[in-house]
Amino acid sequence: MHLAYDGTNYCGWQVQPKVNTVQQTIENALRLFVPDLKCIIGCGRTDTGVHAKDYYAHFDTKVEIHPEIVYKLNAVLPIDISIKDCFTAKEHLHARFSATDRSYEYFVHFSKDPFKNRFSVFHSKILNIDLIGEIIFSDNFTFYRNQLKLSNWFFRLNIHNSRTWIRVNLHSFDGN
User: Fold this and answer.
1) Contacts of 13 (CB under 8 A, 6+ apart)
2) Which candidate, 63, 62, 58, 45, places its Cα nearest to that of 102?
3) Rg (CA), the chain
4) Longest C-alpha distance within the chain, in Å?
């Protein structure tokens, strides 16, 4: 399943007791069409308020999945979650453990704009681009490699800026 979501109204991806999560919302909708659904597995976990524009998840079922399920799911899901595609995955494919790359984007804007605040952090002073890159690369991603067991993974950082904003792209990929 390929999807996107605006995480503003959710306490992250993963199901948690007594809070609204993306996974639980999708599972509730999916159960209308896939009665034997146990749970869906996402390609990663996101924190409260984090958005995903290119996210993958999988689920096991004996029900035949037809292409119109995308339309049906989008009709019952809230406006802030979009199913882009639903397809049969290769056997033994796991949304999280079979992923071969991950990308993260962070936005900072320097001029106050209420229309940007949902997807960008406002900072009143222009930031030093060189220092940002230096801080991010200071430990050569050792923390991420150790915590996520990514010893064979490579990381690429791109920082794009103008007078009024910065976009930081962090891309990691499997070196195997």
Assistant:
1) 7, 21, 22, 23, 42, 44, 45, 46, 52
2) 45
3) 18
4) 55
Tell me what percent of the residues of the chain surpass a pLDDT of 90: 39
Q: Tell me if 51 sits within 8 A of 117, measured CB to CB.
A: no
Is residue 101 among the annotated active site residues?
no
Q: How far is CA 2 from CA 33, 119, 168, in A?
A: 17, 21, 24
H/E stretch holding 83: strand 81-85
Instruction: Tell me the C-alpha distance between 27 and 34, whole Å.
Output: 9
pTM: 0.79
Which among 36, 47, 60, 101 is annotated as catalytic? 47
Domains of the chain: 2-85 (3.30.70.580), 101-174 (no CATH)
* Per-residue confidence (pLDDT) for residue 154, from 0 to 100: 66
pLDDT in tens, 67-79: 999 999 999 999 9
Cβ atoms of 82 and 4 closer than 8 Å? yes
Cβ atoms 30, 40 nearer than 8 A: yes
Q: Identify the residue whose tokens are 């430990």.
A: 139
Q: What is the pLDDT of residues 18-50, one digit of tens each?
A: 999 999 999 999 999 999 999 998 988 778 888
